[in-house]
Amino acid sequence: MAEYRIENLSFSYTKTAPPVLKNIHLTIDDGDFVCVVGPSGCGKTTLLRLLAGLALPTVGSIKMNGKTITGPGTDRGIVFQNYTLFPWMVARKNVEFGIQQTKQDLSHGEVQDIANQFLQKVKMEEDGDKYPFELSGGMRQRVAIARALAMDADTLLLDEPFGALDPKIRANLQDLLVELWDNAGNMRKTVICVTHDIDEAVRLGNRIFFMDQGTISNEISVDLPRTRHFQDPINGPKMCGIRRQLYALFDKSGAVTEK
Questions:
Q1: CA 63, 64, 68, 73: dihedral to nearest 10 degrees?
Q2: E strand or H helix that includes residue 24
Q3: Whole-structure pTM over 0.85, yes or no?
Q4: Pairing verdict, β 33-37 and 207-212
């Protein structure tokens, strides 16, 4: 379980620098699937870093389950767009390391089994014994995604997790993410995903936050059944309507988008 309360949040990188984030008030409920979109440089990744505890607010607070976030924790699985793997570990060991941080009661054999399962889910089971330098950028990102998912943390914080992947693998991993979020009807995880891809946000999120100039200017609810496809005769027109709303927000912000 993971719920977040963000109150009066502002953040600057130095005392004299202008704020990157300004006066953000936000509630993310337990089990939410939130996507954050907005123009480049609007503060999306900075907000995610604050949620991860990799930076602390200049003003205001972020609370997870009622407790102020003061640093990173194993209750949050993180995937950044620069696929942060340990270069001295093969792919399988990278995934095993993540599991060991959150499931310390498991035997070594159980950790290996889980790592292999998630490498298989991201189509990397045949490359488990390769080091990161032997893998392409997209392959490294798949290993990073496998590690975060295998940790089974209460929250997944994702920064452009699928940006380096080809369309087919991207779609498969989007479906896998939704499947694991839904967790077969059990308690849902909380997912916060930063993406520049409007279609991805509409397909994945229950709520979409639009950021502009360091603050959240709009929230759009996506109350549609799963699984979502733009070609669906029932969901498709509604999804396209939400897509048009988001493009209008980008146009209003002055950002350039591909339509």
A1: -140
A2: strand 21-28
A3: yes
A4: parallel
